[in-house]
Amino acid sequence: MRVQDLIPDREALITSDYYRRKNQLVQNRSASLKAQGLTAPQIQAIEKAQQMPEDVGMATEIITGGPTRNKDILAGAGIGERVRGMVDQINWDYAVIERLNPNDLRTELIPFNLGKAVVQKDPVHNLLLQAGDVVTIVGSKDMRMPTERQTRMVRVEGEVAAPGIYQAKPGETLSQLIGRVGGITPQAYLFGAEFTRESVRKQQQQNLDLVIRRMEAQSLTASANLAANLTGDRAAQAATLQQQQQAQQRAQIDKLKSMRSQGRVSLELEPAVMNETLPDRSLTLDSSSFKLLQNQLNVLPSLPLEDGDAILVPSLPAFVSAVGSVNNENVMIYKAGRTVGDIIKAAGLTEDAEVSEAFVLRADGSVLGRRATGFFSSFESLKVMPGDTVVVPSRVDRESGYNFLVRGLRDWTQIFSNLGIGAAAIRTLRN
Q1: Rounded Cα gap, residues 181 and 164, in angstroms
Q2: What would the mean pLDDT of 347-376 be, rounded to a whole number?
Q3: CA distance 19 to 333
Q4: β-strand 319-324 against 389-392: which pairing, if any?
């Protein structure tokens, strides 16, 4: 008996579990459970327990050889995961025979090229099998495959010609994929594009968890030192104040624990270059302006795509924001030429504002502080872009929510650059 006798063709490697997973896409679970004699409450309980996290929204899906159905079970967010999990990706370049040597009872591994043995019918790799041999087929779930052989599902949405989930080609970059699916729309704001990557999200989350542990340790150390120094008539008053501060710090740490890193990668696009390539959106989109519009894709970094990447191209926002220690913490209408100083002046500063630590959360995900610009005057003269958020922290002598957060770190920009918690975290920590 040889390898080809055991595995005559590709179809022999399709597992029964594959058909089970495929049938689940078209099964009427309620009818199936009812046929088993279960009552309505029991069926509802089972369906609720089996409901998947992406059970939201409605869509229509056509399965070849099957009916068209409303996809109220699996939403578009799970397409990539379903496709990825539907087919067992086989490593056709490698398989191995495990054989027990009868002389010394040691296990021998005999590798061979599965593709050449099964597909190409190469006699060199059509090895002779012996009784007791175990042939192991390796898949992508068992061993990491070369990048060019991995399935890369990328989510593209927002102001693009054809939003959807696409399989990226080996080495394909972000600009190439967007161009392949039709490019961007006239309303696209490429500078504010949100590009997220799963590997980055995991690293950011690890950084965030590390910061939280550091904050907890600092809080305990500070409390212990203060308790050791409490003496005299004001000891009781100081102890009460200490308890209040500890409660506030614990509340802020709990809020930080509830946050999740986004995995956003700043595309580091130059604002000046983006402004130069923007066509007049009020004009009819003719061939020349369409070409100019698509030329914006050339400024995107040549970053090869990975499985699980996602890109959201928003429409051009008409506002900028000012938050933190300002009198008017609100959204302002964007006007071309406005600077950081203009936004701070319009928002107004509170008495405890630490304007020297102000920074800008740019629409592209980057963070720019006064230290990055060199002089405060140059920071104030920095032109804001649509969607930017100007943040003015409070002085650290008042134990506010995010003041406690910043004490254990180098500066504000480190928080948002390394932890990836986004601008929404500012208001959460302030409340």
Answers
A1: 9
A2: 78
A3: 55
A4: parallel
Paired sense of beta strands 107-112 and 90-100, if any:
antiparallel
- At residue 157's C-alpha, the angle toward residues 156 and 159, to 5°, is 120
Digit-coded pLDDT (tens) for 258-315:
777 788 888 888 776 665 555 455 444 555 555 666 677 888 888 899 988 999 999 9
Question: Mean pLDDT across the chain, nearest whole number?
Answer: 75
Same domain, 296 and 172: yes
List, in sequence order, the alpha helices (H) in 229-295.
235-258, 271-277, 287-295
Containing domain of residue 389, as a range?
315-430
pTM above 0.90, yes or no: no
Q: Is residue 161 part of a domain?
A: yes
At 431, the amino acid letter reads N
Within this chain, do residues 49 and 102 fall inside the same structural domain, yes or no?
Answer: no
Tokens 């406005």 correspond to: 338
422, 354 contact by CB (below 8 A): no
- Identify whether residues 301 and 182 lie together within a single domain: yes
**Same domain assignment for residues 177 and 77:** no
Q: Are residues 399 and 421 in the same domain?
A: yes
Nearest in space to 208 (alpha carbons), one of 427, 422, 365, 431: 422
286 and 337 in one domain?
Answer: no
Domain count, the chain: 4
Query: Is residue 280 within 8 Å of residue 295, measured between CB atoms?
Result: no
Residue of 217 and 230 predicted with greater confidence: 217
Average pLDDT over residues 15-28: 65
